Amino acid sequence: MTSYHINPAILRAYDIRGEFGKTLFQLDAYFIAKAFATKVIRKTGNKNPTIAMAYDGRLSSPELQAQVQKGLMSAGVNVVNVGLGPSPKLYFAVRSMELDGGIMVTASHNPPKDNGFKMMYEKAPLFGAEIKELGNMAASGDLIDDIKHGSVEKKDIEGKYIEKLLTAFEGGLLNSKNLKDLKIVWDTANAAASEVTKKLVKKLPNENIIINGDIDGNFPAHHPDPTLAENLQQLIAEVKKHKADLGIAFDGDGDRVGAVDGQGRIIWGDQLMTLYAEDVLENNSGAEIIADVKASQSFFDAVEKLGGKPLMWKTGHSYIKNKLAETGAPLAGEMSGHIFFADRYYGYDDAVYAALRLINYFVKNNIKPVAAVDKLPKTYASKEYRVPVAEAIKEGIVKEIRAQVMASKAKVIEVDGIRVIEGGGWWLLRSSNTQSVLTIRAESNSESELQKLITKINMLLKPYHVSLSDDAGH
Length: 474
Prior knowledge:
single chain, alpha/beta, 3 domains, 7-stranded mixed beta sheet, 6-stranded antiparallel beta sheet, 15 helices, about 475 residues
């Protein structure tokens, strides 16, 4: 069996990503797909499993997806190629057709030159050590060859996917006056969810305005990451220009959602989760609701007040998705805009579905987005800082600062890094799973207390010759 070396730097915690032509190459796609197929065959015991594949709008995606198809077929896989579109369309194909797995060619919200792969076994994401194992399998030639039995079928599932998305609306709300009265601006960022969104809004009775609606892998308007305020400025301007009630934004592969209200205020991930929790707990009293360790304390308090059981968990969409499946929770989400609904949906992160559930919330409760945001608790939170440090020392820094904090008898939550409760609020320090950075965030009940927390964090970082001013953004 031929062996092949894959750059270990592209084998990340949640997926595979690299710069096409520099760290990621066409043959990587072939061998990654072949290794993934081998894992699926061994896991399922099915010598000829059926695996779906899809690809996003990046310039390198068509050639990479061709190699993925070849790699899967070379191991005897029956390939269902659902074509260009967002990652959730691939997830829908796997779940709705009860397939053995799926592989998506995407680098999510990374720069245009990057690309990569996301994979899933049946209902579960492939991540962590299993991703590293793909590289080991390729390097050792531990791969199945069965080219005679491989096959491919191209399948258009977009119509069925859109039908499923529309089930986000309860009862007759899809045709209600409250929905007809909402004016919405959608920013699809020239990314993978663009075509689905254009077709979807034609089925809605209200006025919808789409910006950056043509797929273009150069992302000419702005970077496709709705968690950064600078990437929402065009959307905010359009919402104000059209006097719209709501603005919706998607990331590069359509699995993360962002939103702004009619005044142009950003509705951050934990604020969205607070609204979603209210909606979900109405029919799931006492259920666990999961959010990552970066989320506001006001979210966890709100869930408890609503009669739910708040659960704080590790940052990372794969960790959150697995915890949702493990606990049977009906809802989970991250600050990053990955939202998982399992009450009336499949439990994977789908930005378009999440957007429709948000609209459903406003329509059902007969409340405009501005009024809903006004009702949310007022807190004072920092941005998410990402401070560059050497990969070799980043975890050591967290351990050393943890020891100092524990010695001070402060209350510490250690779900993921350290979340320290003090000063009328909290601060978080964790080692990034995907980059050579420390992730830091703080929140308090006043601006002055927040500044005190930030000053303390800088003091703790000083011995390592870094500070929050070194922030490299997202």
